[in-house]
């Protein structure tokens, strides 16, 4: 799947897994910035029992101005497209949000099948690496060898 495939949708909601960690927030924020840059009405959310409380994550959110929102009411259907990042729609670590259109971007083992708009690369150590790879063409349309220097 290519991020360009998702540009047809508006609005776009990006959902991190419940009790998000740094990778969920980073990958979600990367997607948020991509779609915001494309002029989309986009929001970054998470749900679950607890709001983020870890000091390192609160600092990350504050210093990077990550516009993540805690959803208390999961009964409101998502309009447009719902993208789950660092998790898979319907899996046990993410609160179910009702959505007509769903995309999955994840780096864990495949848990859920049957969602056409899916990019899962289980060989990667983080979902933010996957989002970077999906976004690579935006910055360097032709590979020049610079990627070897960066990594």
Characteristic key phrases:
single chain, 151 residues, alpha/beta, 6-stranded parallel sheet, 5 helices, globular, disordered C terminus
Structure description:
The chain has 151 residues and is of the alpha/beta class. It has 5 helices and 6 strands; from the N terminus they run αβαβαββββαα. It has a 6-stranded parallel beta sheet with strand order 3-2-1-4-5-6, with helices on one face. Strand 1 (12-16), helix 2 and strand 2 (42-46) form a beta-alpha-beta unit. Helix 2 (22-37) packs parallel to helix 4 (127-139). The model is unreliable at 146-151 (pLDDT under 50).
Question: How would you concisely characterize the structure shown here?
Answer:
The chain is 31% helix and 22% strand. The chain is of the alpha/beta class and 151 residues long.
Order of helices and strands: HEHEHEEEEHH
Task: Pick out the low-confidence regions.
Answer: 146-151
The percent range for strand residues is 15-25%
Distance between the termini: 23 Å
Given the helix and strand composition, which structural class is it?
Answer: alpha/beta
**Helical stretch tally:** 5
- Rg (CA only): 15 Å
Number of strands: 6
**Approximate helicity band:** 25-40%
Overall mean confidence score, pLDDT: 90
Strand order of the largest sheet: 3-2-1-4-5-6
The global form is globular
Tell me about the largest β-sheet: 6 strands, parallel
